[in-house]
Design goal:
The protein is 64% helix and 0% strand. It has one domain: Orthogonal Bundle (Transferase(Phosphotransferase), domain 1), CATH 1.10.510. The chain is built from 5 helices and no strands. It is flat, with a radius of gyration of 18 Å. The relative contact order is 0.09. The chain starts with a helix and ends with a helix. The protein has 112 residues and is mainly α. This is Serine-threonine/tyrosine-protein kinase catalytic domain-containing protein. InterPro entries: Kinase-like_dom_sf (IPR011009), Ser-Thr/Tyr_kinase_cat_dom (IPR001245). Residues 4-66 form the Serine-threonine/tyrosine-protein kinase catalytic domain. GO terms for molecular function: protein kinase activity.
Amino acid sequence: MMNEFISEETPYNNIPHNHALSIKICKGLRPNIFKYTPKLLADLITKCWDAKADNRPTAKELYQTLNKWKNNKYDDSDIKSFKSQMKEYNDKIKLNRTNLNESDQDEENNTE
Protein backbone atom coordinates (compact mmCIF):
# COMPACT_ATOMS: atom_id res chain seq x y z
CA MET A 1 0.00 0.00 0.00
CA MET A 2 2.87 2.39 0.76
CA ASN A 3 4.29 1.99 -2.73
CA GLU A 4 0.88 2.45 -4.33
CA PHE A 5 0.30 5.61 -2.29
CA ILE A 6 3.74 7.03 -3.09
CA SER A 7 3.70 6.16 -6.79
CA GLU A 8 0.02 7.01 -7.30
CA GLU A 9 -0.19 3.90 -9.51
CA THR A 10 -1.97 0.59 -9.16
CA PRO A 11 0.52 -2.29 -8.89
CA TYR A 12 0.88 -4.36 -12.05
CA ASN A 13 -1.29 -1.90 -13.98
CA ASN A 14 0.27 -3.06 -17.25
CA ILE A 15 -0.24 -6.80 -16.62
CA PRO A 16 -3.56 -8.69 -16.83
CA HIS A 17 -4.81 -9.50 -13.33
CA ASN A 18 -5.32 -13.21 -13.69
CA HIS A 19 -4.17 -16.58 -12.37
CA ALA A 20 -0.79 -16.25 -14.11
CA LEU A 21 -0.09 -13.00 -12.25
CA SER A 22 -1.00 -14.67 -8.96
CA ILE A 23 1.53 -17.42 -9.64
CA LYS A 24 4.23 -14.88 -10.56
CA ILE A 25 3.60 -12.97 -7.33
CA CYS A 26 3.87 -16.20 -5.33
CA LYS A 27 7.18 -16.85 -7.09
CA GLY A 28 8.56 -13.46 -6.09
CA LEU A 29 7.33 -10.90 -8.60
CA ARG A 30 6.99 -7.51 -6.91
CA PRO A 31 5.95 -4.12 -8.29
CA ASN A 32 8.66 -1.64 -9.13
CA ILE A 33 9.32 0.78 -6.33
CA PHE A 34 8.65 4.32 -7.51
CA LYS A 35 11.97 5.84 -8.52
CA TYR A 36 11.65 8.90 -6.26
CA THR A 37 10.81 6.92 -3.12
CA PRO A 38 13.10 7.86 -0.23
CA LYS A 39 15.49 5.02 0.61
CA LEU A 40 14.13 4.62 4.15
CA LEU A 41 10.64 4.02 2.78
CA ALA A 42 11.89 1.82 -0.08
CA ASP A 43 13.73 -0.37 2.43
CA LEU A 44 10.60 -0.67 4.56
CA ILE A 45 8.45 -1.52 1.53
CA THR A 46 10.95 -4.19 0.50
CA LYS A 47 10.86 -5.70 4.00
CA CYS A 48 7.06 -5.84 3.84
CA TRP A 49 7.26 -7.70 0.53
CA ASP A 50 9.59 -10.44 1.82
CA ALA A 51 8.46 -13.87 0.61
CA LYS A 52 8.93 -15.31 4.10
CA ALA A 53 6.26 -13.99 6.45
CA ASP A 54 8.62 -14.35 9.43
CA ASN A 55 10.95 -11.79 7.83
CA ARG A 56 8.22 -9.18 7.37
CA PRO A 57 7.66 -6.55 10.05
CA THR A 58 4.61 -7.06 12.23
CA ALA A 59 1.88 -4.44 12.44
CA LYS A 60 3.33 -3.41 15.79
CA GLU A 61 6.83 -3.06 14.33
CA LEU A 62 5.46 -1.00 11.42
CA TYR A 63 3.61 1.24 13.85
CA GLN A 64 6.73 1.71 15.97
CA THR A 65 8.90 2.50 12.93
CA LEU A 66 6.45 4.96 11.40
CA ASN A 67 5.79 6.56 14.78
CA LYS A 68 9.54 6.95 15.35
CA TRP A 69 9.85 8.67 11.98
CA LYS A 70 6.84 10.86 12.70
CA ASN A 71 8.28 11.96 16.04
CA ASN A 72 11.79 12.48 14.60
CA LYS A 73 13.43 10.02 17.00
CA TYR A 74 16.70 9.42 15.18
CA ASP A 75 20.35 9.85 15.75
CA ASP A 76 21.78 12.88 13.94
CA SER A 77 22.93 11.04 10.81
CA ASP A 78 19.50 9.41 10.35
CA ILE A 79 17.71 12.75 10.70
CA LYS A 80 19.90 14.42 8.09
CA SER A 81 19.53 11.49 5.72
CA PHE A 82 15.78 11.22 6.18
CA LYS A 83 15.16 14.96 5.83
CA SER A 84 17.36 15.07 2.75
CA GLN A 85 15.52 12.12 1.18
CA MET A 86 12.10 13.61 1.93
CA LYS A 87 13.08 17.00 0.51
CA GLU A 88 14.41 15.35 -2.63
CA TYR A 89 11.20 13.29 -2.93
CA ASN A 90 8.99 16.37 -2.49
CA ASP A 91 11.00 18.37 -5.03
CA LYS A 92 10.89 15.60 -7.62
CA ILE A 93 7.18 14.95 -7.12
CA LYS A 94 6.40 18.65 -7.53
CA LEU A 95 8.52 18.75 -10.70
CA ASN A 96 6.90 15.56 -12.01
CA ARG A 97 3.39 16.91 -11.37
CA THR A 98 4.28 20.24 -12.97
CA ASN A 99 5.55 18.44 -16.05
CA LEU A 100 2.40 16.29 -16.19
CA ASN A 101 0.16 19.36 -15.86
CA GLU A 102 2.08 21.17 -18.61
CA SER A 103 1.80 18.09 -20.81
CA ASP A 104 -1.96 17.93 -20.18
CA GLN A 105 -2.32 21.63 -21.01
CA ASP A 106 -0.31 21.18 -24.21
CA GLU A 107 -2.62 18.32 -25.26
CA GLU A 108 -5.69 20.45 -24.51
CA ASN A 109 -4.29 23.33 -26.55
CA ASN A 110 -3.54 21.02 -29.47
CA THR A 111 -7.09 19.65 -29.53
CA GLU A 112 -8.76 23.08 -29.53
